[in-house]
Every structure is written in structure tokens, then in C-alpha cells.
Amino acid sequence: LVKKSKTVWVKFLTFSILFFLAAHLIESTFIPLELYFEHRNYVAILGISLLIAVLIAESLYVVTSKFVVWFFVLIYSVIQIYSTQQVTSIWGQPLVAAELWAMRHPESARAIQTLSWQYRLYDFEDASIKILNEFYQKHPEHISVGIGSMIQMCSISAHSPKNLKVYFDGLINHSSKVKSPLEFTTGLASLGGLIREGRCTGVTLDDYQRFLYKLLTLPRVQKNPKIRHHINYEIALNYQYSGNQQLYIDFAKNAFYDYPSLSIAQIIALKLFQIHENQAAIRWINESLSYAPTNAAKKSWIVSLNSLKKSIEQTDESLKIVDKSHE
Q: Which of 134, 251, 143, 221 is nearest to 187 (CA)?
């Protein structure tokens, strides 16, 4: 009987631990959790709660004085209520919560980015940029922080062209240190838009192209088509801005091949139509249809692209008729 009782306890203990770990695995995070992600304990803690409930129930049968059991249950409940009250009071003060998160997890890029965002909400622009710059100097592998700082500096137009150029060159030089390719896409489109608008004084479109071309040479990027998709499309937009429509189309196609998108397929077809390459536009539509997904979105691809194709064909036929009438 004693052996059977021990076996049951081992099962409960094993289940509780595995449930806790499995719940965190599903939510794709690590233990211990950063302050901002403490809510991910909500499901996972059910496993531990079940074990505690069983312990209480068994204790009431084993212990001679039930008062002792309920006393410890009361103490435990008070501790949990107090802890919950403290956490909720912190979340009622977002700036304080962000500062605590950054203090407890000084190596976390997400913590420093959240604190920077909170500073911006309170119009502490200088402090917002300063903490991003200090973090990026210590952790150049987190280029998303560097890009975020560059975006802010360009947005407020309070920095000299020389400083912006030096900082941007630092982004280029440190790009090979990045460990996670996803770092490249965070804020890249916003930065590109500011540079094309001329708001990053001192940083030219050629500088930005040089940065993007270097990113494409990195092994981690070459192995990740979704990341290449973003970079190729940024290069395409730069060529469109500079007036080179053919290279815009070429790199937009590269972006499409890396990650097929209906919107990009339509943009390329329309651009070919605009430069009077109607047959090329039709051939492109036929090709892009072969990349249509196999899920429910396939119908929208077929309907949309075939409708566009039909319009181009009709326009092409009309132009042929007009040409014949002038012969």
C-alpha cells in the first residue's frame, strides 16, 4: 500500500512538472521569464496548482490537527494575494513597469525597447535615444535596437548629418555580428522610408543600398528567404525612388520568389503595364499564379490576378486596333 502511495505521488509530481514545462514550450519562451512575460505563467501554473491541491487534500487525511493545514493554506493564500496585488499595481504604472523590466533584465533587447517607447510617450526623446544607444554599444548583435535608435534620431531631426552618418556606418560595420536574422526586419521599412524622404540628413540612398546589399551577403540571411524578402523589396523601393524601373521590377521579383505575395505580384504586373510591357505583364501573371498557395487564399489569387490579366489583354487588344486604324 505504501509502495502504491509513493507511485501515485511520483505520478502527480511528474505530471505537474511536465505540464509546467510543456505549457511554456507551447508559448515559446524561456524560464525564468522576463517581467513583461510573466503572464505566460497563467496556464503553466495549473500543473503546480494541481499538485498543491492534492497536497492539501492528502494532508487533511494524514495530519491529526486540521488547523495546522488550514493555517499554512491561509498563509500561502495571503502571500499569493499580496504578490498579485503588487504585480497589478506595477502594471498600473507602465513607465515604472518598463524601468523595472530593464533593471531586472539588462541584457534584454525587448526590455530596453519597451522602456525607450515609454520614454517617448512622455516626450523624453533624449533619454529614449540615449538608452538605445548605450545598449547597442554593449550589444551590437541586437541591430534592431540600433535601427530603432536611428529611426528616432532621423524622426526628430535633432542630430547633425555627421553624427547620423557615423552612426549609420556603425550599423553597416556591426551587421555581421547579428545572431538572429529577424533583427534585420524590425524597423527596416521605417528606416528606409525616412532615408528616401531625406529625413536622415547625411545618410544617402547609396549608403542605404550599401547596407542592404551587405545584408544579402550574410550567411544567416542567405539561408532565410523570408528575411531576404524584406531586404530585396527595400532595394526595389530604392531603385523605384531613383527612377530605375527595370531594377525595381527585378528586385521586386526577387522579393516575390523569396516569399510569394499577392500584393507584390499585382504591383509588378501593374508596373510592367505602366511601362507599356503588356505581354511581359501577362507572362508575369501566368508565372505568379504558379506560386499561388494551396489553402483558401488560392481562390483570391486566381480571381484577382486573372481579372488583372483580362484588363491588360483587353487594353492590349484595343491598342492593336488603334495601331491598325492608323496604318
A: 143
Q: Residues 6 or more apart from 130 whose CB is under 8 A from it?
A: none
CA-CA distance, 148 to 142, in Å (whole number)? 10
| pLDDT at site 141 | 92
Name the nearest CA neighbour of 154 among 129, 174, 135, 127. Answer: 129
User: In the numeric block, which cell numbers belong to residue 192?
Assistant: 528606409
Question: CA torsion sign, 199 to 201 to 206 to 208?
Answer: negative
State how far the Cα of 273 lies from the Cα of 261, in Å rounded to an integer: 19
SS (H, E, C) the chain: CHHHHHHHHHHHHHHHHHHHHHHHHHCCCCCCCCHHHHHHHHHHHHHHHHHHHHHHHHHHHHCCCHHHHHHHHHHHHHHHHHHHHHHHHHHCCHHHHHHHHHHHCCCCHHHHHHHHHHHHHCCCHHHHHHHHHHHHHHCCCCHHHHHHHHHHHHHHCCCCHHHHHHHHHHHHHHHHHCCCCHHHHCCHHHHHHHHHCCCCCCCCHHHHHHHHHHHHHCHHHHCCHHHHHHHHHHHHHHHHHHCCHHHHHHHHHHHHHHCCCHHHHHHHHHHHHHCCCHHHHHHHHHHHHCCCCCCCCHHHHHHHHHHHHHHHHHHHHHHHHHHHHHC
Range name among 158-162, 194-198, 281-285 with the lowest pLDDT average: 158-162
Tens digit of each residue's pLDDT (9 = 90 or more) over 257-293: 999 999 999 999 999 999 989 999 999 999 999 999 9
Whether the pLDDT of residue 2 is over 70: the answer is: no
Query: Which three cell numbers mark 23?
Result: 505549457
**Cβ(265)–Cβ(288) under 8 Å?**
yes
Record the pTM: 0.77
